[in-house]
Amino acid sequence: MTWLYVCLSLIIGYLFGSINVSVILSKVVFKGDVRNYGSGNAGATNMARVYGLLGGLAVLVGDFLKAILACAIALLIAPQAYTEICIMSVGIACVMGHAFPIFFGFKGGKGVTVGAAVALMVDWKVLLFIVAIFIIVFVFTHIVSISSVMGAFGLIFISVVFYVLNLCGVAGTIFANFTLERVFLAFFAGVLVVWLHRSNILRLLNGEEKKFTFKKKGK
What we know:
By secondary structure, the protein is mainly alpha-helical. The chain has one domain (2-205). The chain contains ten helices and no strands. It has helices at residues 2-17, 21-28, 44-51, 53-77, 83-99, 112-122, 124-141, 144-167, 180-196, 198-205. Helix 4 (53-77) runs antiparallel to helix 5, helix 6 packs antiparallel against helix 9 and helix 7 packs antiparallel against helix 8. It is globular.
């Protein structure tokens, strides 16, 4: 029966991930396609850059909630015995759906917000850790891409550390949630986010990456 719940989780995660909030919002509300402006990315950062702060925040909340909702539905369907494998499967599929949405020509976002939701799926302590990294790096650089990449590395690093602490029996139940499935989910999401930022990394190395500013597109 494991394969059945894995398949259901993968389908649910991918379909929910493919609901690209920025594309829908830009087309319905602003009568455009955010992918045609700014960086061309269908994510919260470009949405804020092109259509303003409120648009970016709406996408941030929407992308985060779609991943959490997908996880909740998968866990409601699957028995408790399959919790870990379902969390891993739905998380992986949701990140993939966000990056390569079937509803929008497989051209989506870079997985940062959904990656944050994945961090919450792993454990709330992981989410707090990567949000802290993102904020600290952004305060010093004002560059979203490097903040996102460092947060992705942080997701992998802290999940592995907490998993090792769990294996070592440190602090009792504090690190009990850190199973191998959740660590694999964190690793997959972190690596994918870094890979999706490969063009940004190249620009960073060349000193060409721009700092983040709000700039509403004129109509």
